[in-house]
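S.,

Sequence below, as promised.
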Amino acid sequence: MKIGELAQLSGLSASRIRFYEAQGLIRQVERQANGYRRYPSQVLQTLQIIQCAQQAGFSLEELKQLLPDSVTGAYKHDELMLGLQRKIEQIEAMQQHLAQSKAHLLELIENIQAKPEGMACDANAERVLASLKP
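The prediction came back faster than expected:
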């Protein structure tokens, strides 16, 4: 299929598809005599995998390692499993960091709202900032 059809089916722009090709994520591209790209139908699945993986937080470099081998077209099972496990660990670490950040912000809100009656806002700000210093 031509790039316009692939773009329509995938929901991606033709320039995005060419970018993925230039990055080595799409490898099954044939060039016709007139220079037009010709994509096999499997490229649509590859584009869907790329979109899903990017939504899950994979970088393009990480994706290159997880997509099928350019020579055999086969997935590298061990590398794929290792890459997926590594991404889960990164997500869990990020979740922990976000939970800590949320807790700190909630504590800060509580501290700000605990302003003594009659205290001016700028004095309250100084009080809160003093409590944050190590």
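Residues 77-113 form the longest helix (37 residues).

Coffee later?
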